[in-house]
Amino acid sequence: MTPTEKIIEYLEGRVPLSEFYTQVLYDEALQTFLEQDASIPPYTNPGNLFLYIMDEDVSKPATDINLRDALSKLLTALGVEHQTDTSSLKTYGLALDASPAWLSLPESYIKTLIAGFETLGDKREKLAFAKDKIAKDFRYLKKPPRWLQSASWPLDGEAPLVFVGQLDASDLAHDTAQIYVFFNPRDRGVRTLMQVA
Fold first, then answer.
1. What is the largest CA-CA distance in the chain?
2. What is the reported pTM?
């Protein structure tokens, strides 16, 4: 099987990411094909697609989406006709749709949500499951955080901490600043973080 055929097999969803990644590791012809000079930003910023793939963590759901996009763009640039399975993109999007605006879900948490989708039926049922799980896991005492920058909810392992509240700390900084206070139910400790805008 040629490198192009192996890539098409993966893009069409006939080969899972883990198997394709193993092929990239051990198939020299596939490695050479991926090392060719192709400008596909941001994927080729490290040099070439082979280096990009080697830098990726295949356990993260976003890796599958990004890798399909990069390889699809490569084949399109080379004039190779192909189809791309978008099921992982749709599933990932569903997890993001369930997330409230004040939360940026960590990849590890998205992976857990997606694993929970496997036994569920339609899109509505999966969305309800995800919203319910997020509401149970990302708890706050009175109000959710109002982030000055991107959301940065701390975890203890895979468990989100409980948001207690935030304090205006602008007098301590040269700009607008907030201190966010979180409680860890596991060890009964408190964790704080500060954002400045």
1. 65
2. 0.79
